[in-house]
Write a structure and sequence with these properties.
Blueprint lengths: L1 H23 L5 H23 L5 H27 L2 H22 L6 H18 L11 H23 L7 H20 L11 H24 L2 H8 L3 H12 L5 H18 L2
């Protein structure tokens, strides 16, 4: 139950981080937002070091570096996917892949689900698709390149979560610090190489930094959840993060929640209740 609550918290934090990141990047290149968010995220994890501890063993370093590389790859693939579109078709593909791969790894590692879990898990996967799909998700057909990029982005996100889960359970926040340092270095280097193409518009500094802080919180909660529960359950609940983004967009920006998304939110509530019984 603790793992379930932590996973829900991680999902909510990821959703809020995405929402704030989107706001920050509305008038500026997304890389300018990430350049502000990444150091803020790393700063939070460094501040957690004295509180939660960190053991930089070979395992923590290796899996942390792997998660950082996967995180940087996920960002690059998602950015390219967004540029091609249509995102209302590709976003559910990315979310579904990012949930299914960790579920498969968890089951292959010997995790077992009860009857309620066997019903709740596919419901949760279905709700991920419904919540992350925008209006008219079936009205446009993505190109083969865009679809492959979306699959790649989902895979990279999934690998980031899997690699964090594989890190030694006694390593504290070391995998998070190493992973964030690696992904931040890659992102900053990319921004430097693309500086002339970033434009002169500046993002909202406070909003961008807040997105980075929330992303660190989400990573921490996921790591704690994965260490105290089954990866299969934790990953699929964490993948419900679009629900937080949708609800914030509705309450802050007065964006409409479409019928399919509303059904998805209800399905997610039922799925989480079932998974809580496993």
């Amino acid at each position: 139950m603790i793992a379930l609550l932590l996973a829900l918290g991680s999902s909510l934090a990821y959703g809020c981080a995405d929402f704030l990141g989107g706001l920050g990047a509305r008038k500026a290149h997304v890389l300018r937002t990430v350049v502000l968010a990444a150091p803020a995220s790393l700063a939070v994890e460094l501040m957690l070091w004295p509180v939660l501890g960190a053991s930089f063993s070979a395992g923590a370093l290796g899996w942390g570096i792997a998660s950082g590389v996967a995180s940087a790859a996920a960002f690059a693939l998602l950015y390219r996917t967004l540029a091609i579109g249509p995102m209302n078709v590709l976003s559910p593909v990315t979310a579904l892949v990012s949930a299914m791969l960790p579920v498969g790894v968890g089951l292959l590692q010997g995790e077992h689900l009860g009857l309620a879990g066997l019903v709740g898990l596919p419901l949760a996967l279905a709700s991920v698709v419904m919540v992350s799909a925008g209006h008219g998700a079936g009205s446009a057909r993505p190109s083969r390149t865009a679809l492959l990029l979306a699959l790649g982005a989902g895979t990279a996100i999934a690998l980031q979560l899997i690699f964090l889960h594989q890190a030694p359970s006694d390593s504290g926040v070391a995998p998070l610090i190493v992973g964030r340092a690696v992904s931040s270095a890659v992102t900053l280097a990319t921004a430097g190489l693309m500086y002339r193409r970033l434009g002169s518009e500046r993002p909202d500094h406070a909003v961008s930094a807040a997105a980075g802080v929330l992303d660190s919180v989400a990573n921490l909660l996921f790591l704690m959840a994965a260490r105290s529960g089954d990866l299969a359950v934790v990953a699929v609940i964490t993948a419900l993060y679009p629900a937080g983004t949708v609800l914030l967009a509705r309450s802050v920006l007065a964006e409409r929640i479409h019928r399919g998304q509303l059904v998805g939110l209800g399905t997610a509530a039922v799925a989480v209740s079932l998974l809580a019984l496993t």
